[in-house]
Amino acid sequence: MTATPPVFMDVDGSRIAVRHTAGSTPGIVWLGGYKSDMLGAKAQTLSDWAAKEGRAFLRHDYSGHGESGGAFADGTISTWLAQSLAVFRHFTKGKQILVGSSMGAWIALRMVQELRKADDSNVAGLVLLAPAPDFTAELIEPVLTKAQKRDLAKKGFFEEPSNYSTEPYIYTRALIEDGRDNLTMTGPIDTHCPVHILQGLADADVPASHALKLVSLLPADDVTLSLIPDGDHRLSRPQDLDMLVRAVDAMAQRGN
């Protein structure tokens, strides 16, 4: 099925591609991962489910991703967070469930913080897949090689082969430095809403221990952790997509 063309929204000079379908609340807001786009299997599966349910659904591409403008290497967590907040505030009405995949989970947690600060939080729940909050400080910085540190100092970035693309992943000094200003796992995280985490135990990119650390910082009475024994980082197999839909559906039923 061909996706409908996106609409575009200017956020701080970046042309951000957005797809939004109106419907019942709580609506679903998709937040993709690092170097992923809004036409991936998980986002498309949720879009199809939301359409069938008559539920509002919103997704966008960060700058330098998918159909949005801008250079990927210019992006930081602060940049992509600001874009996500702008899209959220412009397109949503009423209660929403944030569904964040990998880096998108970090964006989701930061969005909750910023929305609460502004006293306009309409977040009814969080569903986080293979969550990678604070990945720059927790997963990248501790294992930087001498060569990578040298590249960061001299070139301002280093490259790593990707399991998901022919192009390498680029990690910039700006991304890593900005990541330190957006850390969420430095103490208790009060989301003021239920959280459901889906984590594969065969995830080679974000270890299950990272999800367990995140769980330990969330209020115990409102967090569900579903561990998928043979699930990898992408969680895009049919059985993973089915589990995602069931988790989002259950969260939506709670929010009705």
Provide a compact summary of the structure.
GO terms for molecular function: hydrolase activity. InterPro entries: AB_hydrolase_fold, ABHD10_acyl-thioesterase, Hydrolase_4. The chain is α/β, with parallel strands linked by helices and 256 residues long.
How would you sum up the global shape?
A: globular
H-E order: EEEHEHEHEHHEEHEHEH
What is the helical fraction, as a range of percent? 25-40%
Biggest beta-sheet profile: 8 strands, mixed
Please work out how many helical segments DSSP would assign.
8
Q: Span from first to last CA?
A: 29 Å
The CATH C-level class name: Alpha Beta
Look at the structure and name the CATH superfamily.
Answer: Alpha/Beta hydrolase fold, catalytic domain
How many domains make up the coordinates? 1
Could you tell me the strand content as a percent range? 15-25%
